[in-house]
Design a protein that fits this description.
The structure holds two protein chains of two kinds. By secondary structure, chain A is an alpha/beta fold. Chain A is built from eleven helices and eleven strands. Chain A is globular and about 60 Å long. Classes of the chains: A alpha/beta, B mainly alpha.
């Protein structure tokens, strides 16, 4: 009995493998047909509420599909680096990146191009926050205090705050109480300050504003003590393989479609908090690239 | 083995206990214990999280998502384990050396294949997942292979150990009857260990469910993905819904594996369907279902893994790891080594603290958690509160081990000063349930006679505990402590991901910044840790024997 039972388990293991082998072949054929009608895949860095992101980006996919005639699909991603990797592998054809991730992606795919952004992305800010009662009033006061960034791949939650800290004479690796933390998301950052886990932190100004508006953060407990100068941030970056896969002129077609978005596309406007998109170019991100190189985040 | 005098053995154990305690206390010194460690400001957030526990989000949308993610998690785990069993079976037999005849060949095959098994299990499944994602992209196979490799390593080692522990006489009898090596294996060794192999595989299967759930951290789907997303969105009520799904899944596997084990021990032949047959059939269906789903439902094909494109990326990636295009690989840089070794020490301290906390918590709770104490058959005393207490502690165990370390870490980081301590507590919270369960089973399986004797001689509960139960079960308790410690060591990387410090945090940073040679360096540090753990637990086990 025992022997039979165990033998059976083994047999079925082998069987299931064999079975899946056959299926591979069958569906493999089906797949070949579909390569002629490749899906244009778009992605977005997961720096805000996943449900909203999903809704808004699906709306973008539908809109692009309607305007360009291609089949467009949104591929969600949990991790900044995973999205960059997908882009590098050519599996994501266009992505909504932050400044740093777009520079990382273009570093890995040299022919990729930042094409479109929101008006506000040309003048983006980060805010530094601390507990309401604390004696921290300027960046220099952060010496010897505990500090948290957002995701390590975030421009507004890590790269630029780090840059402005360095400008103010603070070395984030040495001058804080312990090493700086990476909370993973902007929302977690203000929660951690609110709870007192860290004395101060930095995050995306837009996320902060909407958190205050939606009362997700208790402004009696947390205050902003510094807002950074403006820098370039988010943009749509298109992959280098697009023209090869979808034919000549695709890049322009997609770009035009993005630029034609207005406030009428409610779901898109809600997600991006904008009623228009404007052109951008790689050169706008020179500064970010320099900072990232200086901080040894890219080579 | 030399026969030692009982007194000497007793001393040995005593010194060992002292030594382990000292190591634990040493690890505590790595924390600055002051008022800063705990901050009350996090309590409102903590309460918000707990409120979600009482009012989980039960909307149809979330339940639907939970159900489909639970299936993905299960399917990956099943598919991964089915590959792991094949790998473990083949390499395990080779590593046991039962197929070789000459002494030299046996030794070399043992060393070589045990080495392979050791290498594959020393790297955490999450790291494997990440390596595969980088090499083959976000395919379900990244998750499946990432599960199959380390779990195959663990299973393979156990299979090899089991083969080596097979009693000699039946094998000798077969050999003298003229059986070949293969025949001895099939008719001698394997029938003797089948049941144990399957029951151990089922036990590891439960663990693979949890591992499958955390695969989301490299961007692969499943329950962990949903948990992570809702945590990032601060929707704690949804987090708990998904955790309940995970608990459900773990419970389901627990019950199922009980059935399988029962089927294996069922000796009566019956017509029709016995439990064993039913669960076997179920296993088959589940395995087939998982593979069909992955190949058809997720449209992922095993052969595509070997496409030219993937090979090119894999080349690029592994070239990056060994520093092909870099002038100054981190693993040749003294400064990077110094920094990484400091983190290695931190990781070691965190793991020791974690197992220390888990041991204390399990020790306090394990007595009421044993079935034979709850029903009074061991101590011959029955109290009304035995059963409720038993149920309570067991639920606590299930809860504790079903919630992944990572989720524990994300919650307690709000009330403890980030660093090694919350990491250690998160690991302890998760492992205490596992340790408690394993220990309770040890007590349930122990010889009743000496204890009953003590009880009928009028020993009090405390006396029974210290003079009856503990001396009998301590060696096995210790084995489990050491075994979990090895596991914790590898898992420190996971809590490091959320800012608990140690090597894990740096690993995450290196991943995000695509600093490949730094990753190689950190992987080397992990291997050092695993070698230390292997060596320490092996020598401790010998000392206890």
């Amino acid at each position: 009995m025992k022997k039979w039972l165990s033998a059976l388990i083994l047999v079925m293991l082998v069987f299931s493998l064999a079975a899946c082998g056959q299926k591979d072949e069958k569906t493999g054929e089906g797949k070949k047909d579909s390569t002629t009608k490749e899906v244009f895949k778009i992605g977005a860095i997961p720096d805000q509420n996943a449900a909203d992101l999903d809704k808004g980006m699906t709306a973008v996919a539908n809109y692009l599909s309607e305007k360009t005639g291609m089949k467009v699909e949104f591929v969600p991603s949990v991790d900044y680096a995973a999205l960059v990797t997908g882009f590098q592998r050519g599996e994501i054809h266009m992505a909504w990146f932050g400044g740093l991730t777009s520079v990382q992606a273009r570093n890995l795919v040299p022919e990729a191009e930042s094409i479109v952004q929101r008006p506000r992305d040309a003048e983006f800010h980060s805010v530094f926050i601390t507990q309401a009662g604390s004696k921290i009033n300027k960046l220099e006061d952060l010496k010897g205090k505990s500090f948290t960034f957002g995701s390590e791949s975030s421009t507004s939650g890590h790269l630029m705050p780090r840059y402005f800290l360095t400008e103010a004479g603070i070395d984030p690796n040495k001058d804080f109480d312990g090493k700086p933390n990476f909370s993973g998301s902007h929302d977690t950052t203000y929660k951690l300050i609110e709870s007192g886990a860290f004395k101060a932190g930095a995050l995306n100004e837009a996320v902060w504003e909407s958190a205050v508006k939606e009362r997700k953060v208790d402004t009696k407990k947390v205050k902003v003590f510094y807002t950074t100068p403006a820098y370039y941030d988010y943009n749509w970056t298109i992959n280098s393989n697009v023209e090869d896969v979808f034919g000549k002129g695709t890049k322009q077609k997609v770009k035009d479609a993005l630029l034609s978005i207005t406030g009428d596309q409610k779901e898109i406007a809600n997600l991006f908090q904008t009623d228009s998109f404007v052109e951008t170019k790689n050169d706008n991100y020179k500064k970010i690239e320099e900072v990232a190189k200086e901080l040894k985040i890219i080579k | 083995m030399m026969k030692q005098l009982p007194v000497f053995r007793l001393h040995n154990r005593f010194f060992l206990t002292l030594l382990l305690l000292a190591v634990f206390v040493w690890s505590l010194f790595s924390i600055k214990w002051n008022a800063d460690v705990f901050h009350a400001g996090g309590i409102p957030t903590m309460l918000q999280i707990l409120e979600g526990l009482i009012h989980p989000d039960l909307s149809a949308d979330v339940l639907g998502k939970g159900l489909s993610s639970a299936w993905i998690t299960l399917a990956y785990a099943v598919a991964g384990m089915s590959l792991a069993v094949i790998y473990a079976f083949i390499v395990g037999i080779l590593a046991s050396g039962t197929l070789t005849s000459s002494r030299l060949a046996r030794l070399s095959s043992k060393v070589f294949f045990r080495g392979i098994l050791g290498l594959t299990r020393s790297i955490h499944e999450l790291i494997w997942a990440w390596l595969f994602v980088a090499a083959v992209g976000l395919s379900p196979y990244a998750a499946i292979l990432a599960l199959a490799i380390p779990y195959g390593g663990i299973l393979g080692r156990i299979f090899a150990d089991m083969l080596n522990d097979v009693p000699d006489p039946p094998i000798k009898a077969l050999k003298s009857a003229g059986a070949t090596r293969i025949q001895t294996l099939i008719y001698g060794y394997l029938p003797l260990i089948w049941a144990d192999m399957i029951s151990y595989t089922m036990y590891r299967f439960e663990c693979s469910i949890r591992s499958s759930a955390i695969m989301s951290f490299v961007g692969l789907g499943g329950l962990g993905y949903q948990i992570q997303l809702s945590l990032a969105d601060l929707r704690y009520n949804q987090v708990w819904t998904y955790i309940f799904f995970l608990i459900g899944l773990v419970l389901f596997v627990d019950i199922w594996s009980n059935f399988v084990r029962k089927g294996l021990t069922e000796r009566r032949r019956r017509r029709g369907f016995s439990t064993g047959w039913r669960s076997t059939l179920f296993t088959i269906l589940l395995i087939i279902g998982s593979w069909v789903y992955i190949t058809l439902g997720e449209n992922a094909h095993l052969f595509e893994l070997l496409s030219d494109k993937n090979i090119e990326y894999a080349k690029k990636f592994f070239g990056g790891l060994i520093g092909l295009h870099e002038k100054q690989p981190a693993f040749l840089d003294a400064g990077s080594w110094a920094a990484a070794l400091k983190l290695t020490l931190e990781t070691l301290e965190m793991s020791i603290m974690a197992i220390g906390f888990a041991t204390i918590a399990a020790f306090v709770t394990v007595i009421p958690a044993a079935r034979n104490i709850a029903n009074g058959s061991l101590t011959l005393s029955k109290k009304w509160y035995n059963w409720p207490l038993y149920g309570f502690v067991r639920i606590l165990y299930i809860f504790s081990r079903s919630v992944p370390e990572l989720v524990w870490a994300m919650m307690i980081i709000f009330i403890f000063k980030p660093g090694l301590l919350p990491g250690a507590i998160a690991l302890a919270l998760h492992n205490f349930g596992i340790l408690g369960k394993l220990w309770a089973e040890v007590i349930e399986d122990m010889d009743h006679r000496p204890i009953r004797n003590l009880a009928s001689a009028g020993a009090s509960k405390i006396q029974i505990l210290f003079y009856g139960i503990l001396p009998t079960v301590l060696p096995r308790f210790l084995t489990y402590i050491l075994y979990r410690w090895e596991v914790i060591m590898r898992t420190t990387i996971v809590v490091g991901f959320v800012g608990a410090g140690g090597l894990g945090m740096d690993f995450k940073l290196a991943m995000s910044f695509f600093q490949y040679t730094q990753i190689t360096l950190l992987l080397l540090c992990y291997m050092i840790l695993v070698i230390i753990a292997d060596f320490a637990s092996e020598s401790t086990r010998k000392a206890v024997k």
